[in-house]
Amino acid sequence: ILNVEQSPQSLHVQEGDSTNFTCSFPSSNFYALHWYRWETAKSPEALFVMTLNGDEKKKGRISATLNTKEGYSYLYIKGSQPEDSATYLCAFRDSGNTPLVFGKGTRLSVIA
Amino acid sequence: GAGVSQSPSNKVTEKGKDVELRCDPISGHTALYWYRQSLGQGLEFLIYFQGNSAPDKSGLPSDRFSAERTGGSVSTLTIQRTQQEDSAVYLCAASPQAYSPLHFGNGTRLTVT
């Protein structure tokens, strides 16, 4: 069973602060790394799909980086807003024929 | 359809009864996944379909759980002789290709009393 670790488990930041969290995955075989945002009472929504070592993706104030050699990805949020409060999930797959395995997520709370 | 549709949205059942959960994915989304989230836990993988076949059933927690998919579209997850520890939100997700992001349904909240 693949082990996908996310840290921290939870995070409280003030509005306007920038923050980042980590997803660690096995570095032996890599196919893709996904990031999702999961707001309370909604279903998870995709943020990024990353497939190449060194990839950097950006959507508004949120960006992500990928290091497949060492097995980690960072998600950054610049100038956090209360509406950014959610659980951020990463998911890893090691081939095109295997399922996405999710980490337990980082729960972000942005305080106004 | 416009999105992944799951039914029912809520299900309360008595311990020992069988339940059937349904997922209707977006047309053309050949990959379909079932996950569940128990209270305080992350997303737990249950089963993965590629078309009608299930290359990975490794996440099904016991032989009380089964799933099928017909016509490369609708999938049903069946839980027989439900137990209280089966209480969770069951999420279905689908994607058109291996590199594509998953589109999730709104989930079925199952409560076993």
Give an account of the 3D structure.
- The complex is a heterodimer of chains A (112) and B (113).
- With 112 residues, chain A is mainly β.
- Chain A has strands at 5-7, 10-14, 19-24, 32-38, 45-50, 56-59, 62-67, 72-77, 86-93, 101-102, 106-111.
- In chain A, a hairpin with a 7-residue loop joins strand 9 and strand 10.
- Chain A is globular.
- The model of chain A has no long low-confidence stretch (mean pLDDT 95).
- In chain B, 0% of the residues lie in helices and 50% in strands.
- Chain B is built from no helices and eleven strands.
- Chain B has strands at 5-7, 10-13, 19-24, 31-37, 43-50, 53-56, 65-69, 75-79, 88-95, 103-104, 108-112.
- In chain B, the strands form two sheets. In chain B, strands 2, 4, 5, 6, 9, 10 and 11 form a seven-stranded mixed β-sheet that branches.
- In chain B, a hairpin with a 5-residue loop joins strand 4 and strand 5 (43-50).
- Chain A binds chain B through residues 1, 31-32, 34, 36, 42-46, 49, 51, 89, 91, 93, 96-105, and chain B through 33, 35, 41-43, 45, 48, 50, 55-56, 58-59, 91, 93, 98-107.
Element layout with pairings:
The complex is a heterodimer of chains A (112) and B (113).
Chain A: E1 5-7, E2 10-14, E3 19-24, E4 32-38, E5 45-50, E6 56-59, E7 62-67, E8 72-77, E9 86-93, E10 101-102, E11 106-111
Chain B: E1 5-7, E2 10-13, E3 19-24, E4 31-37, E5 43-50, E6 53-56, E7 65-69, E8 75-79, E9 88-95, E10 103-104, E11 108-112
Parallel strand pairs in B: 2-11
Antiparallel strand pairs in B: 1-3, 3-8, 4-5, 4-9, 5-6, 7-8, 9-10, 9-11
